[in-house]
Design a protein that fits this description.
With 259 residues, the protein is an alpha+beta fold. Helix 4 runs antiparallel to helix 6. It contains 6 helices and 8 strands, in the order E-H-E-E-E-E-H-E-E-E-H-H-H-H. It has one domain.
Length: 259
């Protein structure tokens, strides 16, 4: 049987606790970060704290209805969600992973959940790659201005906002993505572990994760330089203010004596 996995990044975060209290489908697995539901015969739903919802064997109408429901529990909902699609052929003769599909023997729920997890991690990486690219473009703009004009055209407040965006993104990635950590279910199951590793390679998760980390490292080096330059600029201005104040005081002393 051929079934489709659709994963959507719809917001920055989803309130897992509040949603869990409302949604009454059969909960197969749940913790503070993710909820995995069995919603019907051969239909599964995966909700992640980091703003991703994943559907297996769902049609367009039920997906739209569910997204409208869960939007109430989203923070910073996106106007346009990111989407990733993957296909699963169940009850195949052997396990085999292709470019955008996987064939699995049987239809074990843990295998299906593992596939949905990896697809969701992939769409989350798409989002974090997009955010990192925007920060890198902003960094390159300020670096180019520094090269052309010899000075920064960014204020202290805007630099703090820029640093805040970078640190927030780094924290979200560290908190939400466990690319290098195999799920506990794979530790004692060789078949699950092999499927997990193969999916990691198929979606190129580790390499994409490293690229994001390297880009954020470049951004960090640049904003530290920008901060030092702004501190020097502030110190230089302060020195001139002090010199001018001293000069005014000296003039106030000598001018009455001269006149």
């Amino acid at each position: 049987m051929l079934v489709q996995v659709l994963s959507y990044q719809i917001a920055d975060t989803i309130d897992i606790k509040a949603f869990r209290a409302l949604f009454k489908a059969e909960l197969y697995f749940g913790d503070t970060d993710e909820l995995f539901y069995i919603t019907g015969e051969g239909r599964y739903l995966y909700v992640f704290k980091y703003g991703v919802v994943c559907f297996l064997n769902y049609d367009a109408v039920p997906i739209s209805e569910f997204l409208r429901l869960i939007y109430a529990y989203c923070r910073n909902k996106f106007d346009e969600s990111l989407e990733e699609e993957f296909k699963i052929l169940t009850n195949a003769a052997r396990n085999k992973i292709g470019f955008n599909s996987i064939e699995i023997m049987g239809a074990d729920v843990e295998v299906l959940r593992l596939v949905m997890l990896n697809v969701s991690q992939s769409v989350a990486l798409d989002y974090y790659e997009e955010q990192t690219t925007k920060l890198l473009q902003e960094t390159n703009y300020h670096t180019q201005m520094l090269e052309e004009k010899g000075s920064l055209n960014i204020s202290g407040i805007n630099l703090k906002k820029y640093i805040g965006k970078t640190l927030l993104l780094k924290n979200r990635i560290a908190e939400n993505l466990y690319i290098f950590d195999a799920p506990p279910e794979t530790w004692e199951d060789e078949n699950l572990n092999k499927i997990h590793n193969d999916l990691n390679r198929t979606f190129d998760l580790r390499e994409r994760f490293r690229n994001i980390q390297e880009s954020l490292g470049i951004i960090k080096d640049n904003y530290e330089l920008f901060r030092d330059l702004l501190q020097y600029r502030t110190s230089f201005r302060l020195e001139w203010v002090i010199i001018i104040l001293i000069l005014v005081e000296v003039l106030n002393i000598f001018i009455p004596k001269i006149f």
